[in-house]
Design a protein that fits this description.
The protein is rod-shaped, with a radius of gyration of 37 Å. It is mainly α. The longest helix is centred in the C-terminal third of the chain and has 57 residues, at 32-88. It has a domain at 37-89. The chain contains 2 helices and no strands.
Length: 89
């Protein structure tokens, strides 16, 4: 009798769990709102990637400009030393 009662109880619990899962409304396909949110996230990710690439190009350009300015500075220092040497002679 007790085994029958446990079996029936387990069967009822299993049916309740299965029924609750089927009524939740889960589907294999996304609804329109989810698709729109996904599209917005995709667009935001693409925009962020574009911004990142633009910033990388700008960084590269600025580093190149910095290197050029450093070279000009070094040339100016070398010229200053040369002028000092000539004045000292």
């Amino acid at each position: 009798m007790r085994k029958l009662h446990n079996s029936v109880s387990m069967l009822i619990v299993a049916l309740v769990v299965f029924a609750s899962m089927s009524f939740v409304g889960c589907t294999k396909h996304a609804n329109e709102q989810q698709l729109q949110a996904l599209e917005e996230q995709k667009n935001a990710a693409l925009a962020a990637e574009n911004t990142l690439e633009e910033k990388r190009r700008e960084k590269s350009r600025l580093e190149s400009e910095l290197n050029q300015k450093r070279k000009e500075l070094q040339d100016a220092k070398n010229e200053l030393e040369l002028v000092k040497q000539r004045l000292a002679e």
